[in-house]
Amino acid sequence: MERQFPSSIGYFPPSKGSSSRSMRSARLLRVARSEARRALSSSSGLAEENAALRMTVAALQRERETLLSAAKSSGVQTPIVSLNEKSKFVGAQGEFSPELKFWYPDIDSTPPVLPCFRLIDDVGLPVQGSDAAMPPLEQEVALACMRTMLRVNEFEKIFHDAQRQGRIPFFLTSRGEEACAVGSIAALRPTDWVLPQYREMGAFFWRGFSFQEVANQLCANEKDPAHGRQLPLHMGSKERHILYVKSTLGTQCPHAAGVAYSMKTAGSDQVAITYFGEGCASEGDVSSALNIAAVHGCPTIFFCRNNGYAISTNTRDQYVSDGVAPRGLAFGMPTIRVDGNDLLAVMAATKRAREIATTEGRPCLIEAMTYRIGAHSTSDDDSKYRTAEAPEAGWDNERAYWEARSPIIRFGRWMQALGWWDVAAEEAVRKQARKEAIASLNAAQETARPKAFTLFTDVYDELPWTLAAQHDSLKAHLKSYPKAYDNLAASADL
Ligand SMILES: Cc1ncc(C[n+]2csc(CCOP(=O)(O)OP(=O)(O)O)c2C)c(N)n1
Ligand SMILES: [Mg+2]
């Protein structure tokens, strides 16, 4: 079993002057961990794993309450949940901070290593000092975020397997990075423009894409609005204010500056958000986009998902700087680094970025630190290059370490502490999503292929002579070999 119990669960520093209390804490934690380990070792599925994790969280919470009341009665200021000393993300390591601070290059003197903003720790407990920046999140919105992350997760599992079975040609997952897309899109307005890279399924689902719509696109059937002419996952929707995914890395970024500029000149208060990976950030287009957006005060949110890898390239072969954030500062825009596996921090940072973009009329950069759990795509074998060592002792490998810190687990624990979430709720959402995903795959595969004539539509009002010649040639070809193209039987439409 790959999933491991987080060995570093809970950050309860020994409280000053109270060794017996800290010894009791340590003992309680040891017991909780061993209970959970026992449950996990006999676990055969997600429900058991979740139950085990939650058992420990409950123990941690009980202990936390005991510490709190002891501190209160003795009048001692006891740090309850300390900040994790340093982040261990592949792409940049620095201190964590609960302060929602965008660094202004024109005002602040910036530290050599930017801190990483987080509100909840690795076990989903609010970090000390997080109250001020905690976004006011209603239960309904929190539930919607959780459901969306889970639905992304389940949908992606089914379609990843479908690719392995040869049912679709290509797929990639956002496993482990769900909070980047969901936390940021939930902080924006439905009319703000989105210019995705390709790992932002959460943004599509949040904006109302159904499983069936995505399945139609993946299966390239006649219900796909792009008539199967795009690579799988390269979708978009004008009504939902999402521009099409483009394969040419980085091109979304200058477009985002342009879209935001047009919103500004039209007097609209819409903003544009563009997502890009740390690998994509090496494209010249990204630097051009950052500069032009800063110079022209375009209300653009540049959202960099730093997940440690660009296909097989580890970040240490991508840059030697402190991650990607310094580039925002260099081009003159307010910049923040955020724990991308903390949905609450991502949401708070994006909300603030939107405020800055609209009220100060300038772009912002958010560098969200995360980890790519899956392979780059189904065309990739990550066993060839993934770092074997975990960033902390006690873990099988790097991937296992990060899987245990997945945004779904962390946010789930945070919700559970509020009484908003439990194992049964999670299982119900997962089960329903799996059912829906399988049904959407089957329905999409049973739907007819696009008509052959759609190869020539939607770009030119009148076909140029070059395409007209290709049209005639295809028509003749299909007529000569009708049996070879039975799924293009509609050649008569040409
Ligand atoms: C201009 C361009 N160069 C190279 C590629 C091939 N390519 C596709 S994805 C990718 C890696 C991108 O990594 P990153 O931006 O970190 O995003 P991630 O896949 O990690 O989410 C590369 C090199 C491309 N699609 N476009
Ligand atoms: Mg990457």
TrEMBL record:
GO terms for biological process: branched-chain amino acid catabolic process. Residues 146-450 form the Dehydrogenase E1 component domain. Residues 1-24 are annotated as: Disordered. InterPro entries: Alpha-ketoacid_DH_E1_comp, DH_E1, THDP-binding. Transmembrane segments: none annotated. One of its GO terms (molecular function) is branched-chain 2-oxo acid dehydrogenase activity. Belongs to the BCKDHA family. This is 2-oxoisovalerate dehydrogenase subunit alpha.
